[in-house]
Specification:
By secondary structure, the protein is an alpha/beta fold. It contains 10 helices and 12 strands.
Length: 341
């Protein structure tokens, strides 16, 4: 195993939180146009020269793991399955010492043909976004007729042994919010772990309205019309974003990520890297730290040490919380697809 890190070498902030979970966006592109995430015509994608290469991504992950104490790496997008070098990136990160836990968040399109290769490369677990069981509602929400591909991707992931498989769902009022109990039952039948997520103010249109958001409490109320939910002890949650409940006595569980109504900032252990090499200390951060420029100055120990120091400095300045409930809250300029989930 790798050498033990000194406290001064890890990613700490002034509130005593340590970042051990790295979210890596591999692309800002996506093959869906979900109404809460992207306009129908899409967005102006990041220019290719600004994007990190596969080798640069692996190098930054290596710095995070070996110099900064990161233990978990989640690959996100946009849609990470659109990254041609994804399997190679996963394999290179799985070969690091110490080996981080590797996961992926995807919309599932293309997963049917890549799940086996990703598992063999070293991917440990996967989260798949699925907002509805109805193909017509899926097309209404995503503006694409690809519901069957998502279901096929989930089946493939289960067959390959990726576990746990978590299903992420955003409920939209008047569109799919009535499906909460049915979605949970569907996941329980297949051994998936359901996660409901409050809609967050990260859309490029800046059209998010808290008054129309389906809250965590509403989600739980809907689920309780069909299931008995028993809260897990708070100490078992740790830094996980989801509050979890045992379903009908367990062992199956359901999670609700209440980023807006019940923020979990106090226990946050995440740091984020965008596809163009910017460090973000929070999903709702309005400032970023450029690692790409330093990365391209050289490929040696001295440069790696400088990058690590830039990263530590950025995390030291992390704010106490995302500030959604504060009257001065300002939505980030980057939308979710360009930040990475």
């Amino acid at each position: 195993m790798g050498a033990r890190l000194e406290v001064s070498a890890v990613l700490l902030d002034t509130f005593g939180r340590r970042a051990v979970d790295l979210r890596v966006s591999l692309t800002d592109r996506c093959n869906l146009r979900c109404t809460y995430c992207m306009p129908e015509q899409g967005l102006s994608w990041l220019a290719k020269p600004t994007l990190l290469t596969d080798e640069e991504i692996v190098r930054l992950v290596r710095i995070a793991v070996t110099r900064l104490g990161v233990r978990e790496v989640r690959f996100t997008g946009g849609e990470p399955l659109l990254r041609p070098g994804l399997v190679g990136i996963v394999g290179a990160c799985a070969a690091l010492d110490p080996r981080p836990e590797l996961s992926l968040t995807t919309n599932g399109i293309g997963l049917a043909r890549t799940a086996s290769a990703l598992r063999e490369a070293g991917l440990d677990r996967i989260n798949v976004s699925l907002d509805t069981l109805d193909p017509e509602t899926f097309q209404q929400l995503s503006r694409r007729n690809r519901h069957h591909e998502v279901l096929a991707g989930l089946d493939a992931a289960r067959t390959t042994g990726l576990a746990p498989i978590k299903v992420n769902t955003v409920l939209m009022r008047g569109i799919n919010d009535h499906e909460a109990p049915e979605l949970l039952a569907w996941c329980l039948d297949r051994g998936y772990e359901q996660r409901f997520i409050e809609q967050m103010p990260l859309d490029p249109q800046h059209g998010w309205d808290r008054a129309t958001m389906v809250t965590a409490q509403e989600i739980l109320d809907r689920l309780r019309t069909r299931f008995t939910l028993t809260p897990e002890p708070a100490e078992r949650r740790g830094s996980a974003p989801a509050e979890r409940w045992l379903v009908d006595g367990g062992p199956a569980r359901v999670g609700v990520i209440a980023s807006v109504t019940r923020p979990f900032c106090r226990a946050c252990d995440r740091t984020r890297l965008t596809a163009d090499g910017q460090v973000r200390t929070c999903l709702f951060a309005t400032e970023e730290t450029d690692l790409r420029a330093a990365l391209r100055e050289g490929d040696d120990e001295t440069t790696d040490a400088r990058i690590a120091e830039l990263w530590r400095t950025a995390m030291w300045g992390k704010k106490a919380g995302g500030g959604i409930g504060d009257p001065t809250f300002r939505q980030p300029d980057r939308p979710m697809s360009a930040i990475g989930g």
